[in-house]
Design a protein that fits this description.
Elements (H helix, E strand, L loop, with lengths): L10 H9 L11 E2 L6 E2 L9 H5 L8 H7 L18 H9 L3 E6 L2 H21 L5 E6 L6 H13 L14 H8 L3 H4 L4 H14 L3 H7 L11 H6 L4
Parallel strand pairs: 3-4
Antiparallel strand pairs: 1-2
Length: 236
């Protein structure tokens, strides 16, 4: 893990450079990790002030996309983690993303948050004339509780075709991994949480752009990649 206020460039540095009319090489923002082939472009505490300080400046909505476009030949995949709140960070994430993963805790209050999130997504898509498929990931599922079971059922009924056909179970080892600053897949690869995310990763890897292009070729046996195919586990 990294400390939020560790010295060095961060995502906030990209926004600050853009606001000042300068260009910061995104490679300077990528920090190496202890894990092979994984780099981290960290946030910073200052990012919390982004909307107040720079939100009204022109060109702030494409900072992340422009940075990632320059790195497209150096990374197979990029995961952007942002809060589910409409602001500069979310607008940047949506502009840069090709597909959305929306984790939702299996509790009823989270359903309300999901509704607001999807309304925000629709509003941004209409205003920016973009369309993004998404996959809802049920998380922190506890089959012992009726609340979790009922919430999972509501997700599957209400958002059929956009909900992952599996779920991430509640697993106390996630907290231990967070405390140690290491991925759970390295600490306990056979834990319930690790196996669930491994299944999700395997599914997503089958939906990479190369697979999508192959699926469009005549005579291909590949199934076209859609949110529904992901949700139903239809990929080969």
């Amino acid at each position: 893990g990294m400390e939020p206020d560790a010295p060095g460039a961060s995502v906030y540095s990209l926004f600050k450079a853009a606001a000042e009319g300068t260009v910061l090489n995104p490679l300077r923002v990528i920090h190496p990790t202890a894990f092979e082939n994984i780099g981290l472009m960290p946030a910073a505490t200052a990012l919390a002030t982004l909307d107040r300080q720079l939100g009204k400046q022109e060109g702030m909505g494409l900072v992340i996309k422009r940075a990632l476009d320059t790195l497209s030949d150096q990374f197979d995949a990029v995961i952007i983690d942002c809060p589910p709140i409409l602001g500069v960070t979310m607008v940047n994430a949506l502009a840069a993303a090709q597909f959305l993963l929306i984790p939702v805790q299996t509790e009823f209050l989270a359903l309300k948050g999901l509704e607001r999130m999807l309304k925000t997504l629709g509003m941004v898509q209409r205003s920016r004339k973009i369309r993004l498929d998404y996959l809802i990931i049920p998380t922190m599922y506890d089959q012992r509780t009726r609340a979790s079971r009922d919430t999972l059922q509501v997700l599957q009924d209400r958002y059929h075709g956009s909900v992952w056909f599996e779920f991430v179970p509640i697993d106390t080892l996630f907290r231990e991994a967070s405390r140690l600053g290491k991925p759970l897949s390295y600490l306990q690869p056979e834990s319930r949480g690790s196996l669930a995310y491994a299944n999700l990763l395997a599914l997503l890897l089958k939906s990479n752009p190369a697979s999508s292009k192959a699926a469009a070729r005549p005579g291909s046996d590949n199934i076209p990649v859609t949110a529904n195919a992901l949700a139903e586990g239809l990929l080969p």
